[in-house]
Design a protein that fits this description.
The protein is mainly α and 120 residues long. Helices cover 80% and strands 0% of the residues. The longest helix is centred in the first third of the chain and has 40 residues, at 15-54.
């Protein structure tokens, strides 16, 4: 291959690369929105948890979850793991300080993990 052919090849636009650039730019915006929505869901669910706790409804929710048929209960655990884990800990017979510490750690930990990070 001659030097002129190499130069000509370098200046030929790659249509596939243009599509990749558009897809990356679009995905970046939608994934940012998705990350923010996930954070809002996390915070909203912890607020709902606290409302149920202060309204003395957490025990009713825990009893309802435990009384579900096993496949549904497993699905509930899978879909709402941080909150159902917090409910299980809160409804346990452990000391109050330990329950408060664990539920607080769950809420803060899962919320911090959900904070959107800058894309690289």
């Amino acid at each position: 291959m001659t030097p002129n052919e190499i130069i000509k090849r370098r200046h030929v636009p790659d249509p596939g690369r243009a599509l990749v650039n558009v897809a990356t730019a679009t995905r970046s915006q939608t994934s940012r929105v998705g990350r923010v929505l996930w954070l809002l869901l996390m915070v909203g669910m912890w607020i709902a948890f606290l409302i149920a706790l202060f309204a003395n409804r957490l025990d009713d929710l825990w009893r309802w979850a435990r009384d579900l048929p096993l496949p549904l209960e497993l699905g509930l655990w899978l879909l709402t793991f941080p909150w159902i884990l917090g409910t299980a800990v809160w409804e346990s017979s452990w000391d109050a300080w330990l329950r408060v510490a664990l539920v607080s750690a769950f809420a803060v930990g899962w919320t911090l993990v959900s904070v959107p990070r800058a894309s690289k």
